Amino acid sequence: MQFNSKHFYSLGGLLLLAVLFLALTMITSGLFRGARMDLTENNLYTLSAGTKNILSSIEEPLQVQLYFSEAASSDLPQIRSYYRRVRELLEEFSQRAGGNLQVSYIDPAPFSEQEDQAAAYGLQAVPVNSSGDSLYFGLVATNSIDGAETIPFLQPDKEAFLEYDLAKIIYTLNQPERLRVGLITGLPINGGFDPQRQTALEPWAIYTQLEQFFELELIDASASELPAGIALLMMVHPKGLTPELLYSIDQFALQGGRVLAYVDSYAEQDAGASPQAPGMPPQAGGKSDLPDLFAAWGVTFDEFTFVADALYALQVSVGAGQPPVRHLGILGLNGEAINGEDIITADLSTVNLSSGGQFMPAENATTILEPLLQSSENSQLLDTQRLQFLPNPSQLLNGFQASGIRYNIAVRVSGEATTAFADRAASNSGVTSGDINVVLVGDTDLLSDRFWVQSQNFFGQTILTPFANNGDMAINAVDNLIGNSDLISIRTRAVSSRPFDRVNELRLAAERRLQDTEEQLQQRLQETEQRLNELQSARGSNAQDGNLAVFSAEQEAEVKRFLDQKLEIRRELRQVRRELDKDIEALGNNLKVLNIFLVPVLVLIAAVLWYWRRRRTA
Q1: Is the N or the C terminus of the chain less surrounded, counting Cβ atoms within 10 Å?
Q2: What are the backbone angles phi and psi of residue 42, rounded to the nearest 5°?
Q3: Mean of the pLDDT values across residues 526-545?
Q4: pTM of the model
C-alpha cells in the first residue's frame, strides 16, 4: 500500500482543527459565560444604569435563593433555557453588588427538606406530567432583619420584566422602612361604601399598587395641617380644603416637599358632584382646582374646558347594534403626546384619559413648566357643559375646529416660587420663597380602573392585567418625586409597544371625509324605521278592531317601498364603512408586495451586478 502523505496531513489537520475548535469553545464558554449582545431597539435586555446604582447602594448583605427542580424539568428545554438566563443574570447582579449579594441555587427534590422550605416560602409547584411530578422555579430573597421577598414562579413569557422584578426585590429589602405618602382625595380611590347602591366599594387598583410600595396616610380635607414626616403629598381631586391646610401645603412645597396633584375640570368618578334639581338623579362631573397654589407656582388651570382631540380620540360603544363612534374627550395618548425625555413618562406606550383639562404657564412665572402629556395639534378646548347628558359622543364633532395648539394635560413644575399666603407666612415666621418640584395632572379619571387595567379573580387572588400605562405613570411619578429614579429607569424599559401612526392618520382622514355622508344616511335610516314602525302599529290596531282587511294595496306597496328603502340605505352605509378602511387595506397590500417581492428582487439584482462585475474584471 502506497503511503499518501498529503492525505495523511490533510486528515491530521482536520482532526487538529476539530480539537482546537472544541477547546476554544470550552474556553470561551467559561470566559464569556453570561455575555450577550442586545440588538433590540429599546435595549430591553441590557443591564441598566438604574440596576447598577441599586446594586452598588446595598448597605447590608442580602441572600438570594433560586429554587429549581432539575429532574422535573428534564423534558422542558424552554424552562431549562430560561433557568440558565435567570442564573446568569443573578451572577451578574452578585458581581455588581461587590459581595453584598449572596446567591445560592437549590434543587427541591421530592419529599426533601428543600421542598418543604420552598413550600413554606409560598413558592408555586407546577405539575408537569401525569405521574404527579411538580416543578419548582421560584426565588426567595432575605435581609438580616428577616425581611423576605419572593417570586413564586419565574415565567419565561415575562423575561422582559426579569431585570425589573429582581431589582425591585433588592431595592425593597435594602429599604426596610417604607416611605410615607400623604393622600388627600375627594374620590373613593381607597374604597368605602356607596350609599346609593348600598354596597361596599373596592379600592382602585392604583391605590392597591401604591400600598405595596409606600405607607399611605389619608389626610382629611378638613385638617388644619399636613402630618409631619411625609415624604410626598399626593392629591387626587382635592376639594373643600381648609385655608389652614392650603397654607400647610404651600409651606411644605416651598421647603422642599414634593407634591403630586391630580385635578379635573370634569371628574366622571365624582358621582353626585353637580347640583341637580329636586328629584333628579345625581350627575357626575365635579371640578377640582387649587387656584391660589397654582398661581404661586406659576401655573394656570382652566376648570371650565376640556381638551378635545380628533387624532387621539378613542372609539366608544353607544348602544347595542350600533357601530362604535369616536369620543373627542376620551383620549389614548401615545407617541409624540408623551414626553420621552422625562423619567416619569420615558418609554410609556399609552396613557388613556377622559375630559382632561389644560395647564399653561402663568404670566411672569418664575418656575419652569415641562409638559409630560400633550394633545396633538388637531385639538380644541370645548366647554365641559357639552359633556353633561351627552346622548351620542359624535355630537362633539359638531363645530369642532382644530386650533393647531398642543395643550398641556400633565406637567412638571420646578424652580423658584413664592408663597401664596404672604401675610400668613409673615405672621407665622413661615418661608416666603423656595425651590419647588411638583407634578400636576389635569385628569383624575385616568386613575380609575376602567381606563387602564382589567382585574379578575383567580383562585381567590386578584390578578391585574394592564392595557395602558396609567398605573406605571402614577407609580413612576411617586418614585421620582420621592427621589428614587433608578427603579423607574428599569420599570419603563419593559414597555415596547409601537402604535400604527400612519394607520391612525388614514382612518382619521377617512372619517372626516365620510362623516357627513354617514350622518345623513343614519338620519334617513332612523326616519325610515320610524315610518315602518308607525305602519306596523297601524296594522296591529286594525287587526285588534276586527278589521281583517288590514291594508289596502296602496298601503302594502308603501310598506314594501319603505322596506326596500331601508335595505338600500343599509347597503349604502356598508359601502361608506368599507370606504373607511379602503386606504388602510391599500397600505397593507403595498407593504405585503414590498416584503414578498421587493426584497428578493433587490437580492437578485445585487447578485447579477456582482456576477457581471466579476466577469468584467476576470
Answers
A1: N
A2: -100, 15
A3: 63
A4: 0.61
